[in-house]
Amino acid sequence: MTETPQRPLRVLAAMSGGVDSAVAAARAAEAGHDVTGVHLALSANPQSFRTGARGCCTIEDSRDARRAADVIGIPFYVWDLADRFREDVVEDFIAEYEAGRTPNPCLRCNEKIKFAALLDKALALGFDAVCTGHYAKVIMGEDGNRELHRASDMAKDQSYVLGVLDEKQLAHALFPLGDTVTTKDEIRAEAERRGLAVAKKPDSHDICFIADGDTQGFLAGRLGKAEGDIVDESGTRLGTHEGAYGFTIGQRKGLRIGTPAPDGKPRYVLDISPVTNTVTVGPAAALDVVGLTAIKPRWCGTAPTGPGTYTAQLRAHGGETEATAEPVDGELRVTFTEPVRGVAPGQAIVLYDGTRVVGSATIATTTRATAGAL
Q1: Which are the catalytic amino acids?
Q2: 342: Cβ contacts below 8 Å, ≥ 6 apart
Q3: Contact in structure between 351 and 304 (CB atoms under 8 Å)
Q4: Backbone phi, psi, residue 105, to 5°
Q5: Does the first or last residue of the chain, that is N or C, have fewer Cβ atoms within 10 Å of its Cβ?
Q6: 111-121 per-position pLDDT tens digit
Q7: What is the mean pLDDT of residues 159-163?
Q8: 258-286 pLDDT, tens digit each
Q9: What phi and psi, each to the nearest 5 degrees, are found at residue 267?
Q10: How many beta carbons lie within 10 A of that of residue 2, not counting itself?
Q11: What is the pTM of this model?
Q12: DSSP string, 148-199
């Protein structure tokens, strides 16, 4: 395998206003590409300033991106994709929680915004590729097709949130930071050497469109309060809640049950039923998942035709676990070698063959070690 040849390209660099995307744009320009910077205005009512490391798409971020582009010496534009972002990412996020699932908006944004809306527009304008500050690599496989691989530095790898990209999108993706084996401090030092003022800017984290980090409050404001029961596995009522959407599978804190479990051990959210507005809690052992079914698979290349052995990642910052997976009737059936925890419908499962991303799918149901499919 070889890295994708880097002939001079017309590159559209997505610049968030942060240090990673600024350094990525600078490296692309330094490599001889014809780079144009673009900041995506994703908020219909952007705030003037960020709240520390929370939020993004503020007026401040736009200005930071513009200043970085000026220093690099590339043209810069702001594109308004707020309506598309609201429909494809924010409304999807709300609907998924309302249905009792736990979505990952970063995957949806990469799929629908950065590598669909943005890439489509870039190609229509004659650009060859979209460049972002993600830590991942695109490599030319032995069959001549492009493959998505983990970043050289596993500590910063972001291939999980890019697992929704297909081969066509990978053919027009550029990740200049993918080969970086260095600390974030060294990336900041590089930005400072390049004269980029964002060198010391805090990284954004959590959900970008929930600037204060209060996901439950955000959902309550849009879905309203809906009191329901918190029950144990036998159906005994232990307490009440103000909206089942405020819980996720595996959650331990914030249950406010009051009555301790008979064995004195903590209880965790085992199931969320939006139909009855009921949250079921129980012991940690009841969270063990031995298999799952996932829907809407997207393959980073040719789709597997039968069962295979892979490693699976279930969360953006989670580890890998061995699994057997097989596409069946448009779904993905997965069996884990060892039980895993913290698996919730709505999350993405991303399959790997070594460092290569095979594809991803959205978890629909899970099979518990001690119970049926939930």
Answers
A1: 109, 208
A2: 249, 250, 287, 314, 315, 318
A3: no
A4: -65, -25
A5: N
A6: 899 888 999 99
A7: 95
A8: 777 878 888 999 999 988 999 999 999 99
A9: -115, 155
A10: 8
A11: 0.90
A12: EEE-SSGGG--GGGGTT--HHHHTTEE-TTTT--S-HHHHHHHHHHTT-GGG
